[in-house]
């Protein structure tokens, strides 16, 4: 081949590659915690990932105090068909405690009181040191995956100095994005990852929302909470509110009225004009309620942007993006806050949670909560139908059987297609989070190989750039992982 032919061939190859991404370019990721590598061995775990599901990207849980992405199977759920056949509750060695599953350098945490957060679970074990060399040898990428879930003062020295302030004046267990102790910790953490390890990316997740949405219980978990526990009303947030021209005293008056409304609604005390009308009356009288919600949302966005900027300043080739909470699939308020054209400005990728199997149970929970607050006059099935309409779900089950059946793969298709369209014209990659064996109640739907396969096929049919098998390998059963792999192989991505 002479030089001219070579140039032509290379150019043609480059054009073909640009027009149709090579089969291997799809991101096939899986979330995995340190305990799986400790229990089963690094090489063994990576063998399984490659053989069963053609995984090419590891999302290693590097920091959390929660058991959703770290630790073994949660108690009360059946143990999976691999790994140590025991739970890690109780006490003593092997007990899940949480924190950082990597070493970290103190120099990155000079501007925060949060300096002691190493997970004691596995002594000196550093999950990135243990995994990255083997992953690189296999051509697998490694992404640090950490989340906005913290331990209390008994676990984390000084954490109270970074915590949010509840409406009732008490400290919350959550940390405030406007508190320099937390903001600087987040920036220090991403700098630590970017400078200390040969990583390919960083993903962070925050499954929270503002005080207004929380006060009316617009989320899927548990029963309606004490509305006076909503956040954040700390000095940093109040100062930021004043800087934005929000009248803090009016906001407090509004939240007092809203908390009274919710507390009465939970007790079944119907307002004279009904729940929905009374809710609107409060929003009209106190526009500060929504302003306070947006203050919280903007603070999260600014946190994303600051972390993105920090990583790009250290090493531009490291991708950084976010795990977007499942509430995006239930609450129109939370969905409105996830404005992807806005988020795309500081997101190399988005893991949008589209957990089809547990999604049914979670939607039932969300509807149950909302029928106890602003939609107290609406029968639950009617409220579910309304949400199916406004969220654009077409083939989902009625309330009576939804938890037992879960959402269909059409839900995954619709959510992925919507996100893909919202991200068109941006460079942000869309990686739907796929549910494999996320715990549900005994009477609720359970993952199957076919259901998992269909969810993965639906995500790619909608134009996704990858899939992220979730939430953690230590709760995933191998036949269901293989189901995801069947889809990936069928599509020619393996
Ligand atoms: Zn605050």
Q: What can be said about the biggest beta sheet?
A: 10 strands, mixed
Q: Number of helix segments?
A: 18
Helix and strand pattern: HEHHEEHEEEHEHHHHHEHHEHHHHEEHEH
Rounded radius of gyration (Å): 23 Å
User: Beta-strand level of the residues, as a percent range?
Assistant: 5-15%
Name the descriptors.
494 residues; alpha/beta; TIM Barrel; ten-stranded mixed β-sheet; two-stranded antiparallel sheet; 45% helix; globular; disordered N terminus; binds zinc ion
Describe this structure in words.
The protein has 494 residues and is α/β, with parallel strands linked by helices. It has a domain at 25-153 and 180-208 and 318-490: TIM Barrel, CATH 3.20.20. Helices cover 45% and strands 11% of the residues. The strands form 2 sheets. Strands 1, 2, 3, 4, 7, 8, 9, 10, 11 and 12 form a 10-stranded mixed beta sheet that branches. It is globular. The site of zinc ion has 8 residues, from helix 7.
């Amino acid at each position: 081949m002479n030089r001219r032919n070579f140039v032509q061939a290379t150019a043609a190859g480059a054009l073909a590659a640009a027009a149709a991404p090579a089969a291997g370019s799809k991101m096939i990721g899986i979330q995995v915690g340190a305990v799986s590598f400790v229990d089963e061995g690094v090489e063994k775990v990576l063998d399984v990932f490659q053989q069963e599901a053609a995984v090419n990207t590891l999302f290693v849980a590097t920091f959390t105090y929660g058991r959703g992405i770290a630790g073994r199977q949660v108690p009360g759920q059946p143990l999976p068909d691999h790994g140590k056949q025991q739970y890690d509750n109780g006490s003593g060695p092997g007990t899940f405690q949480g924190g950082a599953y990597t070493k970290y350098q103190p120099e990155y945490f000079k501007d925060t009181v949060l300096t002691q957060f190493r997970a004691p679970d596995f002594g000196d074990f550093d999950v990135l040191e243990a995994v990255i060399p083997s992953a690189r040898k296999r051509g697998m990428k490694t992404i640090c995956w950490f989340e906005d879930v913290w331990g209390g003062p008994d676990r984390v020295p000084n954490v109270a100095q970074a915590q949010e302030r509840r409406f009732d004046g008490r400290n919350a267990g959550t940390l405030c994005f406007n508190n320099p102790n937390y903001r600087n910790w987040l920036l220090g953490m991403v700098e630590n990852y970017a400078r200390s390890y040969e990583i390919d990316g960083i993903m962070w997740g925050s499954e929270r929302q503002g005080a207004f949405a929380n006060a009316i219980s617009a989320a899927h978990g548990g029963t309606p909470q004490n509305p006076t526990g909503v956040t954040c009303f700390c000095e940093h947030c109040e100062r930021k509110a004043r800087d934005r021209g929000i009248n803090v005293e009016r906001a407090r008056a509004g939240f007092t009225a809203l908390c009274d409304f919710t507390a009465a609604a939970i007790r079944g005390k119907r307002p004279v004009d009904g729940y929905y009308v009374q809710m609107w009356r409060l929003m009209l009288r106190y526009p500060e309620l929504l302003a306070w919600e947006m203050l919280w949302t903007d603070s999260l966005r600014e946190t994303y942007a600051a972390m993105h900027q920090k990583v790009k300043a250290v090493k531009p080739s490291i991708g950084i993006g976010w795990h977007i909470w499942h509430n995006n699939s239930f609450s129109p308020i939370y969905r409105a806050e996830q404005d992807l054209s806005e988020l795309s400005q500081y997101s190399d990728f988005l893991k949008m949670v589209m957990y089809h199997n547990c999604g049914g149970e979670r939607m039932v929970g969300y509807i149950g909560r909302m029928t106890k607050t602003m939609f107290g006059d609406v029968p639950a099935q009617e409220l579910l139908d309304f949400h199916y309409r406004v969220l654009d779900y077409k083939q989902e089950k009625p309330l009576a059987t939804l938890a037992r059946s879960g959402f269909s793969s059409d839900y995954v298709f619709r959510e992925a297609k919507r996100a893909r369209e919202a991200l068109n014209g941006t460079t942000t990659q869309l990686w739907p989070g796929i549910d494999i064996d996320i715990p549900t109640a005994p009477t609720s739907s359970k993952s199957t190989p076919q259901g998992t396969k269909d969810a993965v096929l639906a995500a790619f049919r909608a134009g996704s750039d990858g899939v992220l098998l979730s939430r953690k390998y230590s709760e995933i059963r191998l036949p269901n992982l293989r189901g995801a792999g069947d889809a990936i192989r069928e599509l020619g991505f393996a």
